[in-house]
Amino acid sequence: MKRRSLLALAAGAALLATAGAASAAWPTRPITLIVPWGAGGGTDATARIIGSLLERELGQPVNVVNRTGGSGVVGHTAIATAAPDGYTLGIMTVEINMMHWQGLTQLTWQSYTPVAIYNADPAGVQVAADAPYKTLKDLLDAVKANPGKLKASGTGQGGIWHLAIAGMLKGAGIDPAAAPFVPSQGAASGLQDMVAGGVQIVPCSIPEARAMLDAGKVRSLAIMDGKRNPAYPGVPTLKEAIGSDWTMAAWRSVVGPKGLPKEVMDRLLPALKKIHDGQEFRDFMGKQGFGIMWADGAAADAFLAKSDADLGAVMKAVGIAK
Amino acid sequence: MPDALLTAFGLVFDPYVLAVIAGASIFGLFVGAIPGLTATMATALLVPVTFFMEPVPAIAAIVTATAMAIFAGDIPGCLVRMPGTPASAAYTDEAYAMTRKGQAEVALGAGLVFSVLGGIFGSVVLVLAAPALAEVALRFSSFEYFWLVALGLTCAVFISTNDPLKGLISLFLGLGVSLAGLDNPSGYPRLTFGSTELLGGVSFIPAMIGMFAVSEIIRWASEPDAPAFKVQRSIGNVFTGMWKMTVAYRWPLVRGSTVGTLIGALPGAGADIAAWISYAMSKRLSKTPEKFGTGHPEGIVESGASNNAALSGAWIPALVFGIPGDSITAIVIGVLYMKGMNPGPTIFMNNAPQLYAVFIVFFLANLLMVPFGWAAIKAAKQILRMPRNIMMPIILLFCIVGAFAINNTAAGVTIMLVFGIVAFLMESNGFPVAPAILGMVLGALLEDTFVSSMIKADGSLLGFFSRPISATLGVAAILVWFAPLLMRTLRRWQAPAA
Amino acid sequence: MRFHDAFNGLVLLLAAIALLVYSLTLPAMQGQQFGPGVFPLMVSVGLGACALLLMARAVAAGWSGPFVAVDAGLRSRRGLTAVLAVVLGTVAYLLLSDFLGFLVVAPLVLVAIFRSQRVGWPAAIAVALLGTAVIHFVFYSMLRVPLPWGLLTPLAW
Questions:
Q1: How many domains would you assign to chain C?
Q2: Contact at CB, A52 and B48, closer than 8 angstroms
Q3: Record: contact A181-C30, CB cut-off 8 A
């Protein structure tokens, strides 16, 4: 008897739960924003500022939750498998277009509902300040002359900066293996290892190298972007330096699980756009040195599809893709 | 300079800033004392709050909260064998042994007083020698780190009192656990058994909560007739006898503070590793090593000072080169940029008043730890008065929620339970658990530094000796490993002759 | 529960062999001299060597002592119930918390463990409810840990 009434109670409550979700206008309760990377990283920092501004826009708490590990697989999986009710959102990063090529997951960018891409940081080519290479051409000549002698670092094996330099070398007609890649925990440890004399090239983004650049410990030879970085106008683009069209950038996007309802999108997208255009977000991104971009709807889809195809091609060339 | 200093005092001793510091103190104590929430989490939780503050209160909040959190991690470690942060893990067993002897107040008092002294020492070094030390830290590449980690692992043998062989086995088990997941130099999924959660490896903090706290709860449950803890009637207060201890252990204190500051200043090694190395060193160099592990404050003095000193040390490379000294300063660097205090050698010129204000906050935070820590100990001590059959189940719930909180996933709770049962079995069979935890902490770092050094040296082991600092560290490590063996051989060799 | 060290050594040796075999199956990485198997291989050799030493030591010391000794506490009904309550309570939390929600499961688990410790019903229920409320407030409201709401989702705050 007791058990049966408990069951009935449970069923009733479950009914109430589904009914509640369908009726009131989103959002009626706190939203979880999943970050696939650790507290303190760039993705986490941008997610926390978006979270706190979104909280003000939507009038509901937005909890930033770090689901780390597995080079982003764990967190990306958590976003994709959440209920598409608008109460679990996440930050998708460029790695989503890399890990499925490696056979680490079945997930692709199409497993999500992209809301908007809000940031992109192009790769740069950094060497130690006391290195003999004054231009990118000097560096590439040295790589060609002594294959295997100069080593690069700045992310894990098959990470975004690994692909950036592999693609650049391939575009310049050099075997990517001529500059072997030393896996590191991230750009900071790669840069420090370079200054300590462990490796010679770190192809990370400019914001990641900023303090070392400003301290005069590191020199940036080129950025892999269509235009120069306004904060570092002295650094040429790859096109200007060696005439290559290769570009590569790490980007970040707000997403939801696949099938995010239209009423959620109708409220979320304008809110996000308003934040993106606001002074607080601009100040934050500018001071941290993050590059700002905006793409939603069809533009976002096209951007993501191109990024996916480009990365797949490099990964096959380097031999990382399955 | 005097002008800047005067301005700096004005910036800090402002009612609003002082209120922020007080609030951050309570917040830090709170987060540090709760298992599963680390000083790094405290910092991350503070970031959105600091976004709307001026630079000085923003940084002050973080400095204060982290200093309090690292100390507060000692409290539950000492009282219920549940280290609040990984930095307390090295001496949790020692402090808990003191609690069982009825000396909880002495253990906590030592933790507090020597945290404060270590923190102040680290702050002095930060103020006086940051640029010079940062230059040294930048000379460390993977070769040097490899030897440092290898030396750290040696601690496993030193800290396992009764049975070094079982300590070594426990260490290898910890290293084995660290193999799981995708975060290895090759980026290849290992030992994941097809689980997405395991791609991220075995989450360390839930494992630690399991091995210390849950195993203790299981043991308590399995001994229904065990006598209750002795709770000593108050012996004056927490600070009684501390002056005597400071004098008696002045060298361990200086050693712990120095080692802590230096390890903290090295990017990639923070308060947790500093505490382990200091604890092992304390035992190795002590006049009474046999007392370690039985509830002896000497190791707590040295490693307690060490982890708080490391906290200040980590700011050295962060301020001078924007290279994080640990996971806390990784977040801090972002905040510094946000506040226009760009890290780099120029920070000493461009932002002198703010920088001096931050330095003042370092001292203030460490001094405030005395009254706040005293109050926290006084409050926390009450749980020892609670009947154990009420207290232990509540602690289990704390552990469950703490293990969940670190990644917000039930997988953390599973890991906690499995490691709790394994640790219970290990300890019943005479295998110490501390080396396994050390293996988990250092395993990934050991593999990273070994493999990337081998790649850089094109597969030649000579690479580990080809740089001056690395060669020195290597010789030191080899001497430490083989010294006992060498001594024994020499003695045996001399014996017949004599 | 204490096993003979010869047996402990054997179990560890088997684990080391399994790890060794596994590490040999790991592929080499394209463009890298040192694949994912190098370090596991080193760990397995170290563990295996220590396991052999442990077995040798146990055998050399003679086969004295029982193969397995169970502590008195675990043999008593009360001790066994208490241990099972802790372990199964945690398992129950794992299985049910997502569906029923923290606020429902946590007090149930606590009451079960309190009862295994012979805490009276009124005290068990009161402390369980109070403890759950405090922990929920601290973690969920103050520290923003997303504890599951489960069935209580419509009531979530």
A1: 2
A2: yes
A3: no
Residue C62 shares a structural domain with residue C85: no
Query: By the CB < 8 Å criterion, does C11 face chain B?
Result: no
- The two tokens of residue C38 are 């190098």
Instruction: Return d(Cα A185, Cα B445) in angstroms, integer.
Output: 10
Tell which C residues from 62 to 121 touch B, by Cβ distance under 8 Å.
71, 73-74, 76, 78-79, 82-83, 85-87, 89-91, 93-94, 97-98, 106, 109-110, 113-114, 116-119
The conformation of residue A151, written as its DSSP 8-state character, comes to -
> A2 in a domain, yes or no?
no
Number of domains comprising chain A: 2
C80 shares its domain with C63: no
* Choice between B199 and A271, residue whose per-residue pLDDT is larger: A271
pLDDT attached to residue A162:
92
A139 inside domain: yes
Stretch 12-51 of chain C: residues touching chain B, C-beta under 8 Å: 12, 15, 19, 22, 26-27, 29, 32-36, 38-40, 43-44, 46-47, 50-51
The answer to whether B460 contacts chain C (CB < 8 Å) is no
C-alpha span between A272 and A278 (Å, rounded)? 10
Domain span at residue A142 reads 124-242
Ramachandran class of C33: left when φ > 0, alpha when ψ lies in -120 to 50, beta otherwise: alpha
Query: Taking 80 as the threshold, does the pLDDT of residue B204 lie above it?
Result: yes
Q: How far apart are CA B113 and CA B121, in angstroms?
A: 12
Integer Cα distance of B465 and B144 in angstroms? 9
ipTM score above 0.90:
yes
* Whole-structure pTM value: 0.83
Residue B413: domain span: 2-229+237-466
Q: Same domain for A65 and A110?
A: yes
Provide the pairing of β-strand A124-128 with A201-202. antiparallel
Which residues from chain A sit within 8 angstroms of residue C31, using beta carbons? 176-177, 180-181, 318-319
In this predicted structure, what is the pLDDT of residue C29? 66
Q: Answer with the residue of higher pLDDT: B189 or A120.
A: A120
Q: Report the C-alpha gap between B65 and B88 in whole angstroms.
A: 16
Among A208, A242, A276, residue at a domain's last position: A242
Looking up tokens 């600092």 gives B469
For chain A, counts of helices (H) and of strands (E): 12, 11
C-alpha A25/C-alpha A28 separation (Å) is 7
Final residue before a domain boundary, out of C48, C69, C90:
C69
Mean pLDDT of A93-109: 90
Provide the shortest C-alpha distance from residue B267 to chain A (in Å).
8
Find the distance separating the first CA and the last CA of chain A, reported in whole Å.
58
The reply to whether A156 falls in a domain is yes
Contact B166, C54 (CB under 8 A): yes
Interface of A with C (CB under 8 A): 10, 13-14, 16-17, 19-21, 29-30, 32, 61, 63, 65, 157, 176-177, 180-181, 318-320
In which domain, by residue range, is C11 found?
2-69
Average confidence (pLDDT) over C114-137: 94
Q: How far apart are CA B256 and CA B117, in angstroms?
A: 10
Q: Do C110 and C136 share a structural domain?
A: yes
Q: How does pLDDT run across B1-20, given as a tens digit for each residue?
A: 578 888 899 999 999 999 99
Q: Which two tokens stand for residue B139?
A: 């000379």
Q: Domain boundary at A220, A242, A264, which?
A: A242
**Cβ neighbours of residue A270 closer than 8 Å, sequence gap 6 or more:** none
B14–A contact, CB cutoff 8 A: no
Whether residues B394 and C34 touch (CB distance < 8 A) is answered with no
Structural domain contains residue B201: yes
How many beta-carbon pairs under 8 angstroms link A with C? 37
Q: Are A320 and C153 in contact (CB < 8 Å)?
A: no
Read out DSSP for A224-247?
A: SSSS--TT-TTSPBHHHHH-----
Bridge partners of residue A33, in order along the sequence:
A64, A89
